[in-house]
Amino acid sequence: MSSTSQKHLNFVAEPMGDKPVSDLAGVGDVLGKRLVEAGFDKAYTVLGQYLVLKKDSELFKEWMKEVCQANSKQASDCYQCLNDWCDEYKSTIQLYESECTSVEKERWLFDPQFSNLPSRDPIDLQFKDVTYTVNMGFRKGRKEILHQINGKFPGSQLTAIMGPSGAGKSTLLDVLSGYRKTGVTGNVYVNGRNRNLDTFRKMSCYITQDDRIHALLTVLENMRIASDFKLGNQLKPHEKEARIEEILTVLGLYEHQMTMSGRLSGGQKKRLSIALELISNPTVMFLDEPTTGLDSHSCTQVVNLLRFLANQGRTIICTIHQPSAKLFQEFDEVYVLAQGKCLYQGSTDKIVPYLQSVELPCPMYHNPADYIIELACAEYGTDKIDLMVRSMENGECIRWLKDPSLVMSLEELRKIYPLSTNAKDDSSLEATSPLSQLKILMKRGFVKTKRDTTLTHLRIGVNVFLALVLGCLFVKAGNEGSRVVDNYNLLFAILIHQSMTTMMLTVLTFPTELSILLKEHFNRWYSLKMYYASVTLLSIPISVVCCTIFTITIYIMSGQPMEWSRFGMFFAISLMMDFVGQSTGLMVGAWFDVVNGTFLAPTLSIPMMMFAGFGVTLRDIPNYLRWGTYISYMRYGLEGYVGAIYGEGRATLECDEAPYCHYRYPSKFLSEISMRGDQFWYDLNALIINFVFFRICAYFLLRWKVIAVR
């Protein structure tokens, strides 16, 4: 063993602080790193950490003892010492080998490596006098959530923002990441300079609490789409694949790369969310409650991963509600909030001395994380909160940081990180061109549409089923003069089906896509314009397919006039009603959530039906309400259907089975319902105008929603 390895071996046996050997979580982490540095065989290193994970306390103590004794021997004897020990415990080694496969699946817990994601220069994040106020609603005034708080989050560290519910944890994370801009005052500094939000967004990412991933794509497909968006042409295809494979391997997802993302466990989904953002190798990562909803093992996996990413030079900032003692020790720094104020900012190892300094000692055998949360919840009185806020100077005090002497002023940071090293600012936040974004979005959308049982399979099935039912109910009603009223009812039923089905389907599904849109758009995957363009273009093929199946079936079964021109007119009106209904659904879905949208969409459609001229003829509508007929897209749809079937010089209808045929002449029927038979092109153009208008309105409502949530 080299002299360098001997030097590291001395470091292995250094005292572990006040922790007992039985505190496997802390000791195992330190020991594992030291043994790797010392050059010991990887198998024995992994074996030691394997014993840690299996909580084999006694065997672990023996192994620790042997390592420490090896330090007193000559360097040449150290390997043999451990070899002899491992020979003595062959059964344990065999147990390790028998479970080697399962351990290998999660080897990033032991010896994670990144070669395609190089270490990054650290980013120092500071904020001063940050205040956030929110509008409570009409005549309710404004409420201040954060109260002039301060803080310093050094680079290459894993920092946790803690506090009870409602303390402002997620709000502070949103403010620091730039996700929230409205109502924010104060200054945020990046490496000593005022944060340029556009530049900062290019070097950071934000991972939300809920795992917003595309459930209909596999893990590998999600990663490839993310690499296309975030890397563009920066890397060659084989280099992208190498980066994807490495990330999946290190994060323990390689074995699941062909699994549908919706079938992953909670911990796997969380790791996939992190993997998607790691594609662009961000320097700063914000995570909102990354351990929420996970079991203890999954929590450990996620936090260990964050620990490793921080060691590579990234600034990792996450919110966490109430960690266990084991997880709490994994964080470098902790920032505790209560009532929008800073109670503590500093190292996790110094929180107990800090509590003693303010005469609030942590009880023996009590988890410090639990105790400070109890204090933040005012379980011991609100005066304790005020005392801690004053002692911490609302976040300005740096005494309790891990190494206060290393904390640099803004001026020192500006000297170390000159402007020339900052990310270049350009007009585009996204890494790819608009056309490339549209191409990738279309590619992803087609795959999802093909697999979506609701938007595709069920929709086609419903159209076939309803066409058969209506066709059987109104069989051969189109050419019978005695059944003109029945056929008119059929046309209105077709009108309602074409508009309401697509509208309600969009209202129910679009809000679920909205959450993914907000995350991906903020993390600079694509622009809102290209996303909306892809939604519009992707809706055309499935609408054409469903409309074609339904129209051909119902047209033939109901005995409508077999003329190509009339069928073309009928199909055109059906397709435009489908498009207009979907556009209306986009408007409602962009503005309201699923619950409110499900109620409002049908309710708002009722006036459209009443002004269509079905229940009340157009001539019988009062003059002061007649304006409603001009804004009702259903009026144009119904009039277009009637014109296609009975207008344009339709010949005399058959009346073979009726002794008296009132509507033998179509012009008589048109006169009674106050419709003209030569208005088809007028009605079609009106529907096109409605379609374009609703699409534009839906886009601006969506844009407003994206801005409003921030």
Measured between the Cα atoms of the first and last residue, the distance is 57 Å
Fraction of helical residues: 55-70%
The shape, in one word, is elongated
Structural class: alpha/beta
Beta-strand residue percentage: 5-15%
**Main sheet: strand order:** 6-7-8-3-9-10
Cα-atom Rg, whole angstroms? Answer: 33 Å
**Low-pLDDT runs:** 1-46, 52-56, 70-79, 95-111
**Biggest β-sheet strands, sense, barrel:** 6 strands, mixed
Say how many strands there are. Answer: 10
Enumerate how many helices there are, as a single number.
Answer: 28
Mean pLDDT, all residues: 82
GO molecular function: ABC-type transporter activity; ATP binding; ATP hydrolysis activity; DNA binding
Membrane topology: Multi-pass membrane protein
Keywords: ATP-binding, Membrane, Nucleotide-binding, Nucleus, Transmembrane, Transmembrane helix, Transport
Domain ABC transporter: 125-364
Explain what the structure shows.
The chain is of the alpha/beta class. Helices cover 56% and strands 9% of the residues. It contains 28 helices and 10 strands. The strands form 2 sheets. The protein has a 6-stranded mixed sheet, sandwiched between helices. A 4-stranded antiparallel sheet has the order 2-1-4-5. Strand 1 (125-135) and strand 2 (142-153) form a beta hairpin. It is elongated and about 105 Å long. Residues 1-46, 52-56, 70-79 and 95-111 have low confidence and may be disordered. Its main location: membrane. This is Barrier-to-autointegration factor-like protein. Residues 125-364 form the ABC transporter domain.
